[in-house]
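Kindly inspect the following:
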Amino acid sequence: MPELVNILGVAVHAVHMESAVAAIEAAIESGTPGYVCVTGVHGVMESQNDEDLKLILNRAFLNVPDGMPTVWVGRLKGHRTMARVFGPELMLELCRRSVRHGFTHFLYGGKPGVAQELAESLRNKVPGIKIVGTYTPPFRALTSEEESGLFEQVALAKPDYFWVGLSTPKQERFMAKYHTRLQCKVLVGVGAAFDYHTGRIKDAPAWMKNAGLQWVHRLGQDPRRLWKRYATNNPKFILAMIAQLMAGESRFPIR
């Protein structure tokens, strides 16, 4: 497995797209159940006041850097090849590679109709992809009857990839709770990837991504929902990282 970078007590793997894909495909081949988190500043900062979430992130089979600030911290700590693994791009790359391996996919998440629309979008983008099921969850915890129905549907489909398109930290909690109970190989939480690949969210230009400014592009599309997140998390992240770099990692241990 790749090395870990301690980012405010959150263990983020020092990977790039190619090494992340290789690790995930190896996990599918081995058949060991696990989940993959895609973590940026939002996830790191949410975990600062939520030890359960921090444990969930740190127990992930793979926790990839979904944001340039996490990459910059990793490179500052000596991981020169570490690069951003953006959730929607990771999803598309794994979908493309799955065709040659025969891996199958299950799509869980999104508003009503989004998972089904995503399935059609992926079939158009990736000819030959095998999507064996979709499920749109309610905006609350699943009831026991809904759990049973989901378990039965997944048991019949037996997907290799179980894609979870919920917001952070909801998707991380879902994966931690269900990764040993669902009959699939790997769960991958990709957040807004469902909306990116169905055109509900427009992607930022490459230069904005590389400069760590994708959050500005997202804010422009959904200011009412996102302004408070960015106005609060971004300054706090910078100040906390300065404190960690000055005081040493012992102040923010990985548990």
